[in-house]
Write a structure and sequence with these properties.
3% strand; 15 helices; binds 2-acetamido-2-deoxy-beta-D-glucopyranose; metal-binding; 2 domains; Peroxidase, domain 1; hydrogen peroxide; EC 1.11.1.7; binds protoporphyrin IX containing FE; Peroxidase, domain 2; peroxidase; oxidoreductase; 4 strands
């Protein structure tokens, strides 16, 4: 791995020494799947050639995984008789995407090192690689997560932040995972790439919080642009860039946009417009100093990726969409089919 990886590993070890309950380690697959990093990167690079949005979609999957029962691949499970998928939770349904690319990464990994790499780790690695390939920072991803055998749709509906939520609610949804205000601001910087559907900000354009007028914090010329993309009774699924200046590049422009009232979602603009001086200082710093943004972003991504699985029934899934068949159901199956 690269030399920057070594430096971050050293930082990681220091932070482990200071305080951590984490058993994750960037070298977790060094002997069992030494090529894991290249294999994941190969599939994502390929996908990017036809879908410039895919990196953004993949980091979002990691975020939505970690905020529900910890980083345990639970978002990847399909519905079954006993599983109510997180995929169909409100924040994810017809919105979260990239599942097919995760499946394709998983098949490549099963070819190279069967039964070794967890789906939760695939999401964490895919997030880092996506950021790096979009021009953002790279870091050593702590690895060794296990996959859940359950999903939690209620958890996805309750824990994931919504685009119209106020700063107080956003802060508390992050602090529920011990993520600080600084983490909230830095991680929101992931909205420097990717898209949003009109449904997630249309009230800001016509009738903000039922006031009958547009969101007063929205930049006037940006308001006009957005009204053309999202007409009042138009198709709510139409997409627009979260960062209109450099839509597919991972850079500091998300924060520069906030300074000129060009945050797309209410949850974005509130970081700058809610008169919270701690947050405004961070936005100004990240906007003027991309290095500072990248450094804090790495730390916050590692913190988020360290949210431990809450369940105790864990495994390394062979197919990210479904739990492994356990030995008891296997023998039941044999019994039934031979009778
Ligand atoms: C702070 C609270 C957050 C809220 C309220 C929020 C909300 C949203 C919404 C509503 C969308 C558009 C979804 C759609 O229209 O289908 C979106 C997209 C996205 N979010 Fe967030 N998000 C938040 C934090 C984060 C974090 C922490 C990350 C990652 C570290 C992230 C990464 C992304 C990315 C990359 C996209 C674009 C995905 C794509 O194009 O497929 N978001 N977010
Ligand atoms: C998810 O979206 C699909 C397609 O729009 C819809 O049929 C389904 O009812 C939605 N699921 C839930 C739980 O709302
Ligand atoms: C994953 O599961 C294995 C086997 O049960 C266990 O030894 C390991 O500590 C677990 N890893 C984490 C990060 O919890
Ligand atoms: C699902 O997530 C909610 C958090 O909203 C939590 O209270 C609940 O215990 C979780 N359920 C399971 C079965 O993990
Ligand atoms: C933020 O939203 C919550 C939930 O809707 C609400 O109870 C609270 O009063 C709001 N806080 C502010 C400062 O607007
Ligand atoms: C947050 O920190 C507290 C105190 O250190 C700890 O008890 C709790 O398990 C942590 N929560 C998460 C989700 O890491
Ligand atoms: C704005 O929304 C509120 C409540 O949702 C509604 O009562 C009002 O009629 C709407 N105003 C306009 C101008 O559409
Ligand atoms: C709405 O827009 C989406 C995204 O561009 C498109 O896939 C869909 O076909 C459109 N629906 C209608 C009814 O035009
Ligand atoms: C609106 O955006 C333009 C272009 O970025 C900028 O020059 C102007 O200062 C912004 N207006 C406000 C009120 O932020
Ligand atoms: C923030 O401060 C400005 C200027 O004092 C004021 O106009 C605005 O209403 C305040 N915004 C909020 C959300 O309190
Ligand atoms: C930008 O941030 C980096 C990292 O925190 C710091 O070393 C550097 O001095 C800052 N640059 C300026 C011009 O403030």
């Amino acid at each position: 791995m690269s030399s920057s990886c070594f430096i971050i590993t050293a930082l990681f070890l220091v932070s482990m020494f200071m305080k951590s309950n984490s058993q994750l380690d960037p070298r977790f697959y060094d002997s069992t799947c030494p090529n894991v990093f290249n294999i994941v990167q190969q599939v994502i690079s390929q996908a990017l050639q036809t879908d410039p949005r895919i990196g953004a979609s993949l980091i979002r999957l990691h975020f939505h995984d970690c905020f529900v029962n910890g980083c345990d691949g639970s978002i990847l499970l399909d519905n079954t008789d006993t599983i109510q998928s997180e995929k169909e939770a409100l924040p994810n349904n017809n919105s979260a995407r990239g599942y097919d690319v995760v499946d394709s990464i998983k098949s490549s990994l099963e070819n190279a090192c069967p039964g070794v790499v967890s789906c939760a780790d695939i999401l964490a690695l895919a997030a880092e690689i996506s950021v790096k390939l979009a021009g953002g920072p790279s870091w050593c991803v702590p690895l060794g997560r296990n996959d859940s055998r359950t999903a939690n749709r209620t958890g996805a509906n309750n824990n994931l932040p919504g685009p119209s939520e106020n700063l107080t609610t956003l802060k508390s949804k992050f602090s529920a995972f011990n993520l600080s205000t600084t983490d909230l601001v830095a991680l929101s910087g992931a909205h420097t790439f990717g898209r949003s559907q009109c449904r997630n900000f249309i009230d800001r354009l016509y009738n903000f919080s039922g006031t009958g007028i547009p969101d007063p914090t929205l930049n006037q010329s940006y308001l006009e642009t957005l009204r053309q993309i999202c007409p009042q009774n138009g198709n709510q699924s139409v997409l627009t860039n979260l960062d209109p200046t450099t839509p597919d590049v991972f850079d500091r422009n998300y924060f520069s946009n906030l300074q000129v009232n060009r945050g797309l979602l209410q949850s974005d603009q509130e970081l700058f417009s809610s008169n919270d001086t701690e947050i405004i200082d961070l936005v100004n710093k990240f906007s003027s100093n991309q290095t500072a943004f990248f450094e804090i972003f790495i730390q916050s991504m590692i913190k988020m990726g360290n949210i431990p699985a809450t369940g105790s029934d864990l495994e390394i899934r062979l197919d990210c969409k479904k739990v492994n068949r356990d030995s008891s159901s296997e023998s039941n199956y044999v019994l039934v089919s031979s009778s």
